[in-house]
Structure formats: C-alpha cells, structure tokens
Amino acid sequence: MADAQQPADPQPEALPLRASDAERERTATQLRDHAAAGRLTPEELDERLDVAYAARTVGELETLVRDLPAHDLAAGGSAAHPARSAQREAARRHLQHAIGQAVLVSAAAVAIWLATGADGSFWPRWIILISAIRVAFGAWGELGPAGRSRHRHRHDEARLGRGGARPRELPREPGDER
Predict the structure, then answer these.
(1) Distance from C-alpha of 114 to C-alpha of 176, rounded to nearest angstrom
(2) How much of the chain, in percent, has pLDDT values that exceed 70?
(3) 3-class state of residue 4 by DSSP
C-alpha cells in the first residue's frame, strides 16, 4: 500500500465550484429567455427558477440549462430580444427629454430670479427640487426593476402565450365559489 499513495487534499478539479449570485441571476435570465421562446412552460420555469436561486454550485446551475440550446443566448439578451432593447432605448430617450425639460424650467426660474434683482431667498430652489423629484420618479418608473418598458414586454409575452408573466390565481378557500 506504500506504492499507492493517497493525496492528502482532493484535486481542485474534483471540488464543486460555488455559484455566485451573478451566476444564479444569469442562469435565471437564460431560463426566462427560453420560456419566452416557448421551450419551457410557466410551471417548468417556476420549478427551475426555484432550483436556480437555491443552487449552491455551478454544476447545479448547469444542469438546469443542459437540455436547452445555447446558440440562441450566445449573443446576449439584447440580440435575443430586440423588442425589449428597443423599448428600453425609447424609455432612455423619454428620460433624456424629461431631464432636458427640467433643466430648461430650472434655468428659466433662475433667470427670472436674477432679472428681478436676486434679493431675498433663492425661491427657484423649490422649482429645481420639484423638477429633480419628478425626473427621479420618471426614471424609476421607466427604467427601474418593474419599469414600464419591461412590463410592456412581459405583457406582450403573456398575451402571445410565450411564457411571460401571468397573473397567478390565488388559492381558493373551501366553499369559495368564483
């Protein structure tokens, strides 16, 4: 038994690699894209997403997408969903327009304040503050996690039967007739 030496530590290749949050999220995005393409039913998507977010190793994540083609997703999310990126770009343009409008209104208020003698308190600060809050809420509404551009895309997928977000039915109580 002296000839057959046992290594003290396991080989690095034999150890399963721990999955990061970014890898879990990337796998979840791939699963959603495949569901949108019609390869997974909403039920399969839910099951696989639960496993993806609970996965501890990269191997567990790889098994979730092993039976799905990889060529559709190689170019990234924007190539797989041109409508989504176009909507996102339209939302960005809308936000840039809102920022420009807020800057012009604020500049006009400061110009009026300066033209009237600039004495007393700086009252344009309220217009600047309200404009900034309006732009911030608009940006969050358009580009945030539940932004209008993403909501429109999920609604279109659900309407077309492509595995998008669908309203979940609440569990029924005994004796509840709907």
Answers:
(1) 67
(2) 65
(3) coil
